[in-house]
Amino acid sequence: MALSRADTSTLGRWWWSVDRWTLAALFTLVGFGYVMVLAAAPAVAERIGASSRNMFFAKQVMFLAGASAVMAGVSLLSPKGVRRLAILGFAGALLLTIATLFIGAEVKGARRWLNLPLLGSLQPSEFLKPCFAVFAAWLISEAKLAGRRGTAMWGAALVSYLGVALVLQRQPDIGMLLVVSSVFFAQIFVAGINLALVGGLGLMGVSGIVGAYFLFDHVHKRVNQFLFGEGGNSYQVDVALEAFGAGGMMGVGPGEGRMKNVLPDAHADFVYAVVGEEFGLMICLLILGLFAFVVVRGMMRLLAETDLFVILAASGLLTQFGLQAFINMASSLHLIPTKGMTLPFVSYGGSSVIAIALGMGFLLALTRKRMSRAEEGTLT
């Protein structure tokens, strides 16, 4: 059913105000998620002795369907509604992330997951990322608008960041901490604070990375393995590179890949390697282009925006989305040290895909064409 520009219903106003190009790019990535979990997951399920070869695929179908609903539903909100939901989400996700330190399931030396009745395994820090981006944007924008009276809001923003950073460091989840820190620093830079302070924060970030290298054994091993080829286990990276090489320009064909049979995280952190083998360089570049399009398109939409909160929140969400995609693809290609981080919407994962959908729903809501105040007030 076609929607007329004269349609004043909630759906009609949404359709003519949302960025349909970004929406199309995101749902195309969701489509790739269905294709890739069907290609990679059965081999993984068979290798680990799962009850069904389609176990991961069946779960991911539900995850992606839920993610699509979340993204579409959240995109209906006004900026005020986005802010309210993000503040509540930040408080809840932070409490649950703190809870992982005490009652979380330990996997490979890290406590990042909660085993909840009915819901199964949940990684609350995934939801912390998009909610913190919006929450921090609200605090920073309020501080900037208050001028010299905004010291308390600046303090609240810094304390919030340091609290999140401390919890993530204790899990430990250094990759997640890197993403959250990048979002926060990017928002401060966009807000236009003193360059000396930006430099100081940058120095603090570099010091944190160096400290992680010396304090965390798994970080030390991964960096040494990447730089010097010593220590650590490079098996997955080596297999991933073989997969890219085998795929060539056009790939070996859907379902014909062989490396997924021996690649432990073929359906999750290394799904991009499966794409490379079965679909080739051209589809890899297409996926890369879709991520770049979402980020660039979002930034272009912000050029005409005057609301500082919207600018900062959307900038943080775009930074997070683009950086997560870059880390996943660059790790698979051995361009950076390996880091277990999913490829948004394409990799298997429940918490990750729903949290990414929440963040992109926030983005779509914030970058909609602004209507009259009366109309905006109906979706708070």
UniProtKB/TrEMBL annotation:
<dbReference type="GO" id="GO:0032153">
    <property type="term" value="C:cell division site"/>
</dbReference>
<keyword id="KW-0472">Membrane</keyword>
<keyword id="KW-0808">Transferase</keyword>
<dbReference type="GO" id="GO:0008955">
    <property type="term" value="F:peptidoglycan glycosyltransferase activity"/>
</dbReference>
<keyword id="KW-0131">Cell cycle</keyword>
<dbReference type="Pfam" id="PF01098">
    <property type="entry name" value="FTSW_RODA_SPOVE"/>
</dbReference>
<feature type="transmembrane region" description="Helical">
    <location>
        <begin position="197"/>
        <end position="216"/>
    </location>
</feature>
<keyword id="KW-0573">Peptidoglycan synthesis</keyword>
<comment type="similarity">
    <text>Belongs to the SEDS family. FtsW subfamily.</text>
</comment>
<keyword id="KW-0328">Glycosyltransferase</keyword>
<feature type="transmembrane region" description="Helical">
    <location>
        <begin position="152"/>
        <end position="168"/>
    </location>
</feature>
<feature type="transmembrane region" description="Helical">
    <location>
        <begin position="85"/>
        <end position="107"/>
    </location>
</feature>
<keyword id="KW-0133">Cell shape</keyword>
<keyword id="KW-0132">Cell division</keyword>
<feature type="transmembrane region" description="Helical">
    <location>
        <begin position="308"/>
        <end position="327"/>
    </location>
</feature>
<keyword id="KW-1133">Transmembrane helix</keyword>
<keyword id="KW-0812">Transmembrane</keyword>
<dbReference type="GO" id="GO:0051301">
    <property type="term" value="P:cell division"/>
</dbReference>
<dbReference type="GO" id="GO:0015648">
    <property type="term" value="F:lipid-linked peptidoglycan transporter activity"/>
</dbReference>
<dbReference type="GO" id="GO:0008360">
    <property type="term" value="P:regulation of cell shape"/>
</dbReference>
<feature type="transmembrane region" description="Helical">
    <location>
        <begin position="347"/>
        <end position="366"/>
    </location>
</feature>
<protein>
    <recommendedName>
        <fullName>Probable peptidoglycan glycosyltransferase FtsW</fullName>
        <ecNumber>2.4.99.28</ecNumber>
    </recommendedName>
</protein>
<feature type="transmembrane region" description="Helical">
    <location>
        <begin position="279"/>
        <end position="296"/>
    </location>
</feature>
<dbReference type="GO" id="GO:0009252">
    <property type="term" value="P:peptidoglycan biosynthetic process"/>
</dbReference>
<dbReference type="InterPro" id="IPR001182">
    <property type="entry name" value="FtsW/RodA"/>
</dbReference>
<feature type="transmembrane region" description="Helical">
    <location>
        <begin position="57"/>
        <end position="78"/>
    </location>
</feature>
<feature type="transmembrane region" description="Helical">
    <location>
        <begin position="21"/>
        <end position="45"/>
    </location>
</feature>
<dbReference type="GO" id="GO:0005886">
    <property type="term" value="C:plasma membrane"/>
</dbReference>
